[in-house]
Amino acid sequence: MADKITTQWKGNMVFESDNPRWPSILMDASIDFGGTNSGAAPKAMMLSSLAGCSGLDIVSVLNKMKVKLDDFKMEVTGELTDEHPKYYHTVTVDYYFYGVNLPQGKIKKAVDLSIEKYCGVMAMFRKFANIKTEIHYHNK
């Protein structure tokens, strides 16, 4: 199975890219690089993709385990190399879970399954970056 996207230059430093399940997203360079900040930063979108992929896995597994959460968020930090081509050499994923009597063992298992088995974006990142993860539990 192959995914295919089309990315069209819209002028200046703006590009519009479609997605198999979404009409389009705009990407733009920062003002420092001649852009207008009118779209997402392409490298940062990679971090969003990592969080989305892992988050989908975790929610799916926790639903099967019948775990209820009040909230769940991820913060992904990517450290870029100094030299061109700049890429993320280290990526940190912090998972934050909120709820009452959080079942830490089940949550850890769901996170570990995403990290080690299911998340294809995580597997791609491992090809070029050191991945660090941490789980934060916030019981009410």
How does this model look, in words?
This is OsmC family protein. It holds the Pfam family OsmC. The mean pLDDT is 96. This protein folds into two domains: 1-40; 42-139, K homology (KH) domain (GMP Synthetase, Chain A, domain 3, 2-Layer Sandwich), CATH 3.30.300. The chain is elongated, with a radius of gyration of 17 Å. The protein starts with 6 loop residues before the first strand and ends with a strand. A three-stranded antiparallel β-sheet has the order 1-2-3, with no helix packed on it. It has a three-stranded mixed β-sheet with strand order 4-5-6, covered by helices on one side. Helix content is 32%, strand content 35%. It has 140 residues and is α+β, with helices and mostly antiparallel strands. It contains three helices and six strands. Helix 1 crosses helix 2 (104-118) and helix 1 (42-64) crosses helix 3. A hairpin with a 7-residue loop joins strand 4 (71-80) and strand 5 (88-99).
